[in-house]
Structures are given as structure tokens and as C-alpha cells.
Amino acid sequence: MLFKNGIIPVIVTSLLFGLVHMTNPEVEKHGWGIMLPYYSLFGLFLGLLTLLDEGLELALGIHFANNFTSGLLITSPNNVLKTDAIFIAQTEDPASELLAWLVLAAIAFIIFWLRYRWKNFNLILK
């Protein structure tokens, strides 16, 4: 309500989302330089979905699905979620994972945009 558009609050909350996740053990292994953008961009994605969908349900569902699926399918010695997953990653490449995530997030955004017929982009930019 303090701002005329939603982009500033989304950026602030995205950075806060990223900063909260900086306590995860994988940050110690890979460093802030790759992990802060990784988490903050995920927060930005969820924030944009929240504004466009005008509700938290989609963003919360995606965050839950991400964590739940990750916990079931794959783990590594550096993960914050220590689970008995199906696969154990012996090596990690967060830069490649970030690039793959960006592509998948763009595809997911397009699918949601087409599915929900969002037209309220004025909530983000005015």
C-alpha cells in the first residue's frame, strides 16, 4: 500500500526470501555469490505469481512442491533437507542448476499466464 506499484515490494520480499535462505548449509559450500541470486530469483518468481494471481495459494503450492519433490527425489551432503531420497548427488553445480531453473521458471510462467489468462500486470507496473 506504500507504493504505487508492486515491483518494489516484490523485489524487497524477494531479497528477504533470499537472505532467509542464506542460513542453509549449501550456502557455506557454494557461497553467497551464486546462492543469493538463486534464492532471490526463486522468491521473485513466487512474488510475481502472487501478485498476478492475487493470492498466495499458487506460490505456496509451488514452494511446497519444490521442497517436497526435492526431498523425495534427490539429496546431497550439503542439502538443508536431510532425507532418505531416491538419489544422492555426489557433485553439484549450482550455476548450471540456476540456468536450468531460469528456463523452467520461464516455461512455468508462460503456462500459468496462458492457463489463468492474467491481464492484471498493472499490479506490478503502473
Characterization of this structure:
With 126 residues, the chain is mostly helical. The protein has one domain. The protein is built from 5 helices and 2 strands, in the order ααααββα. The chain has a two-stranded parallel ribbon. Helix 1 crosses helix 3, helix 3 packs across helix 4 and helix 3 runs parallel beside helix 5. The radius of gyration is 16 Å and the shape is globular. The two termini are 14 Å apart.
Topology of this structure?
Blueprint lengths: L6 H14 L4 H6 L1 H22 L3 H17 E2 L11 E2 L5 H23 L10
Parallel strand pairs: 1-2
Helix pairs in contact: 1-3, 3-4, 3-5
Features:
3% strand, two-stranded parallel sheet, mainly alpha, 2 strands, 126 residues
Number of helices: 5
Radius of gyration: 16 Å
Helical percent range? 55-70%
- The counted number of beta strands is 2
Strand coverage percent: under 5%
Main sheet?
A: 2 strands, parallel
The SS-based structural class is mainly alpha
Average pLDDT level: 92
Q: For the record, give the distance between the C-alpha atoms at the N and C termini, rounded to a whole number.
A: 14 Å
Number of individual domains: 1
Please sum up the structure shown:
With 126 residues, this protein is mainly α. It has five helices and two strands.
